């Protein structure tokens, strides 16, 4: 069996080390940027979570407001119906009294 011996010069080793160091620095910068992006993403996720919670509360509040508005909107209608009923009763009573008076019963 024949063995091959590889001879590497000091210059080749220095060049390989420089390349490795350069890649290492580049990777370190990329990792730092990715960590910053991840931190920003985590903040965004937290913000969205808070917004979703607030939206749920707002939906409940809006439901309550709609119920209150419907109830308040019905109040004038009921008042108007009551006034109209009383007016009609008074008119019928007046007509009845007028007719009875014309007939001579009153």
Using brief descriptors, characterize the structure shown.
single chain, 106 residues, mainly alpha, rod-shaped
Total strand count, please? 0
Tell me the distance between the termini. Answer: 144 Å
The share of residues in helices is over 70%
Roughly what fraction of the amino acids lie in strands? under 5%
Evaluate the radius of gyration.
45 Å
Structural class: mainly alpha
Please outline the major beta sheet: none
Q: Could you spell the SSE succession in H and E letters? A: H
Which residues form runs of ≥5 with pLDDT under 50? none
Give the averaged pLDDT, no decimals: 90
Count of alpha/pi helices: 1
Shape: rod-shaped
Structure description:
With 106 residues, the chain is an all-alpha fold. The chain is 89% helix and 0% strand. The longest helix is centred in the middle third of the chain and has 94 residues, at 10-103.
Brief synopsis:
The protein is mainly α. The chain is built from one helix and no strands.
């Amino acid at each position: 069996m024949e063995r091959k011996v590889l001879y590497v010069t000091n210059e080749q080793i220095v060049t390989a080390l420089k390349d490795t160091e350069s890649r290492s620095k580049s990777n370190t910068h990329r990792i730092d940027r990715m960590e910053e992006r991840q931190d920003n993403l985590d903040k965004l996720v937290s913000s969205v979570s808070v917004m979703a919670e607030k939206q749920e509360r707002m939906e409940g509040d809006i439901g309550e407001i709609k119920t209150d508005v419907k109830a308040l909107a019905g109040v004038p209608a009921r008042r108007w119906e009551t006034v109209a009923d009383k007016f009609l009763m008074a008119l019928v009573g007046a007509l009845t009294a007028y007719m009875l008076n014309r007939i001579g019963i009153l």
